[in-house]
Amino acid sequence: MKARKSDSPASPPPTSPPLAYKDEKFLDSDEARPMRILAEYLQPLRIFCREQVHETIVFFGSARITPDGPLGRYYQDARELARQITIWSKGLHSKVHRYVVCSGGGPGIMEAANRGASEAGGRTIGLNIGLPHEQRPNPYITRGLSFEFHYFFMRKLWFAHLARALVVFPGGFGTLDEMMEILTLQQTQKLDRPITVLLYGSQYWKEIINFDALVRHGTISPEDLKLFSFADDPATALRLLQKGLRAQPEEEPPAFAHSCTPGRQSG
Length: 267
Hints:
Largest sheet: 7 strands, parallel
Strand content: 5-15%
Radius of gyration: 24 Å
Strand order of the largest sheet: 4-3-2-1-5-6-7
């Protein structure tokens, strides 16, 4: 006797679960946070190595400064300084890209720096970060050198790691935070190489930070005041940068923070 054919449809074949590194639900979970942090280190590292970017000049400053606002001259000065830096760096003989202008990737002073470098025909980097009030990358960043970060501390790592110089224009909490981070790394000798730090706009900076009072109260040493210089115009800023920067390129990219503890290896 012939077996009766079932009227019920056949069960669909079982589907394979996604690979862990392609499982978006897992990657967005708390458990995968270490992987997300590591990705914000490894992805820029891969691109900077591929693009032969070893040395940057970082511009910090307020996102709120506009060309026609009360502090508009700083926008124009940042734009002009970035343009002059790029022209100078393009004239240096090297197989790698020297002194690439790098900013936080957003508007204001960041836009001005990327804009000036772009106008000089140079490459320029933007290290953007997602914020509650959305910050979009400005249009002057070189294609392929615009990065988006979730974690502030990973963004700061990339500001510090490749920087050979830092130019700090007037800014607020974020600018102060980033500036103090670099000065602290310099002061504590946690950098593999020195960073030339310029505070642009001496009147502004001396008004909002009483550096001499820090020395007077003993919270910093008099020698710490040598960690930075002031500049008030693009020509002076460029001259100070050229004085503090190496003419010859480094053969290898810098190492990360070494240990200052006796008996410990670098790491």
